[in-house]
Amino acid sequence: MNNIGTNAFDIGYLDTLAGADSPVHRLDPRAKLLTTAAFIVSVVSFDKYALSGLTPFFIYPAVLLALSGLPVRYVLRKAAMVSLFAVLIAMFNPLLDRDILFHLGPIGITGGWVSFVSILIRLLLTVTAAFILIASTGFNALCESLRELGVPRPFVVQLLFFYRYLFVLTDEAERLVRAWSLRAFNAGAMRGKVFIPLIGHLLLRTLDRAERIYRAMLSRGFDGHFRIMRTLRIRSGEIVFLAGWILLFVFLRCVNVPVKLGALLRGVSP
Amino acid sequence: MSHHIVEARDLHFTYPDGTVGLDGVSFRISHGESVALVGENGAGKSTLLLHLNGYLTAYQGTVRIGDYALTPRNLNAVRRSVGMVFQNPDDQLFMPTVFDDVAFGPLNLGLARDEVERVVSRALATVGVAHLAKRPPYKLSQGEKRSVSIATVLVMSPDILVMDEPTSSLDPRSRRRLIELLKTFRHTKIIATHDLDMALDLCERTIILHEGRVAADGPTRKLFQDEALLQRCSLEKPLRMLQCPVCAP
Lengths: 270, 249
Prior knowledge:
The complex is a heterodimer. By secondary structure, chain A is mostly helical. Chain A is built from 13 helices and 2 strands. Chain B has a domain at about 5-90 and about 160-240: P-loop containing nucleotide triphosphate hydrolases (Rossmann fold, 3-Layer(aba) Sandwich), CATH 3.40.50.300. Chain B is built from 10 helices and 10 strands. In chain B, the strands form 2 sheets. Chain B has a 6-stranded mixed beta sheet, sandwiched between helices. In chain B, α4 crosses α5 (about 115-125). Chain B is globular, with a radius of gyration of 18 Å. The chains are: A mainly alpha, B alpha/beta.
């Protein structure tokens, strides 16, 4: 039986990971957020046939994974799961773009295949970076830092609630589907006649639960403002982290290191 | 002046769909009393509890906490002094870790960070779950969740503790541990429950609700002897007060 709870985004586990302690975890969430944003912008700004220029960017997720002590296999598996979407997006490129860009021995490589691989690499890079950001910061701290950076409070609170709802919703849905499948026997996939009332029921249940959660929040003084037990403070460590990475991203964006390195090697040994 | 008094005067409440929740409920609970609120499903227990904290507002009648009537203006002060433990701990625990969850209230009260750390540790130690501080709440056992929910309320140092079904879905040992814990609290306690044995253990006084009205209000032992009353209100004598069916059939 498929299990929505374990297949979904695994929010619970992400929060567990965020509770660990490492140099990366201790960084101010704002520094991590801005660095990740700069990373994503530099990666997606390459032109569509870029391959060699992108590869040095793997240094960022690799260094962060090593420093943060996050489980590498878990992060890669999650990134691979999301990459399936990229395959869907990019899969027509090889069919549409049939111009030969270069030859690998006797085989001509078309532009379509190059851009296909390029999209995959970009997605892998950006998703891994975003994942590391959340798993080393925690969603609440991230939202708090968004607010500190000037994102209007209604958006941030919306995001926080969405996050809570997601967890509550998968939980409820899992129980509904379990109750259905225990009495559906060999009905196979769920049909519209069952599915539609089930979704409606889910919505009502979730609204009820949300109401109760809100009461619990009010009874402890909630005023629309999420506070976390961490003093956000930019120290020299954060400045070095942020400036260092951004300089590196700009450098890697402007200078194609693998090509230059290749040229250098060729120049040295004729 | 005492903040530990809870008084309801002639509360009437009807839900938007027309269901009558409360139909003239009055009582006065004084400082340090421990009161059980019992009654059949739908008798109005939860509705009444939601009035004590201002989530629901009666269209007639008043609630007084301490010396003041509950109004929208003193809602925050009242919510601080009336600590409410909801029936389902999953609704009460919404932060990523136990520590964050217990710290949620004090942070909202504007306590300094080191102070928050101190009161949270103390509350967790009081309910005996200090070792769980870093765990995510939804991975705890029911008993642990319940203890943490109580800590989230204790940490605000309330004068009055209001609990909805604290012993539901607990195993016998966790239930016993909870009862022993609650016995140590000096707060005014209002406990809505179906667990009449627990009511005998914890509450010297019981209010029986029936169809939105107070059917009886008096010493727990005396009310639980009154079989006609219990039957009328869909209740049963607690097991402990029955004769043993094996020894004296």
